[in-house]
């Protein structure tokens, strides 16, 4: 058989309405609502390249482990003062009176006089006023200076505030070990937020050696005392079985306690549990309700998940406009998955007027942040020349980025680009490499395409048995191109005994799915005893 140029299908046009598909990690689950006409490869099958499923990235931000953190900021003066319960006298007493009367300039002066005389409570209050810019200009370095003096006198409020400043690098060089040191000092005196933050450091292994058991011990007391941030992180430990035996019911209990106090991260994670049916009966309406509470507080993950639910139909059918609102809010915060989702809504005019330029804008924003699906859709735009000038080299650049990050559709596309030499030098071996990556993820089109390469001996040694094996993997997913290709193998007796009846059976299966080549080949199939035309493509 003489070598010929290997034609492949055009890249698919994304058209029609779609339902969103829940994603896990960074990978798609394929879901196509139709297929484009595919170019025929004479002899041993042809390549497939179905339309990317008519679905939005809609990536679900999963409940998987991630520490919830809230930057509380240095304590307010009143908070500092009432933590200690010391007697008021002289300048310090005057400072309190002025501060409560909102006369911050005189309060600052009085506290400064007392602080310079060594009054620890006044030193702590002065640190808070410098931090908050009350009665003086904001000055984090001076805030840290006075907090340190008070902390060294044993003031737990100042120790906590100083620890936060070391953790954030505010007014001092960031130093997580010093942050842990001062959190520990305050925690030992019973400061609940210090216990919480120290527990979080142990969870993260920041400034201290990671120790989940210590994290559990530190978080339990403030959680029982009603500290929502501690409750949320303790719930995470129970959910993941870190430092404690996994217990979804306890996780649910602590998430509920924190969520009822308005803790956005807990509300979001509680939504996850209801959506997935983890430790509770699956209930998408309750999931949406909790997502909404977190979303209204600005939680970008919850905004994205809420938008995704509105695109998935069912109880949320016909709410694309709501999906657009929440994707937009999350995208405006820089949340990459939502930026990709927003781009898809613009591309199809779902919940918003169709605007391919804006679609590309949002794909690019997501891709620049390293969001793989956004990179894939940006590559598609460059390949099709929609919203941007067509550019095969840029298409390859973004296909490759998404492919290296595990997106099977992009791995398949990159394989097709190498097969046809579009934007890159034609290289069948590299095509095999990328098709195999996607095929091993169960991507049917790449399984079929690997079959074609094995059948033709392009990039690999010709091997009909392997070709048939890959066709059958794709057939298990009901891919009509693979059904047709297997029929062609039976027709020609490649890797199997020549059998027109079996060829007709597979052509019929492909034709029933509307594959034009299969319909045409059925019409031209020889009857028993007739010679076989091995090229049924014309």
UniProtKB/TrEMBL annotation:
Basic and acidic residues compositional bias, start-end: 518-530
Ranges annotated as spanning the membrane: 73-90
Annotated Pfam families: Sel1
Source species, domain of life: Bacteria
Keywords from the UniProt entry: Membrane, Transmembrane, Transmembrane helix
Region called Disordered, residue ranges: 518-538
Protein name stated in the entry: SEL1-like repeat protein
Protein species of origin: Oxalobacter aliiformigenes
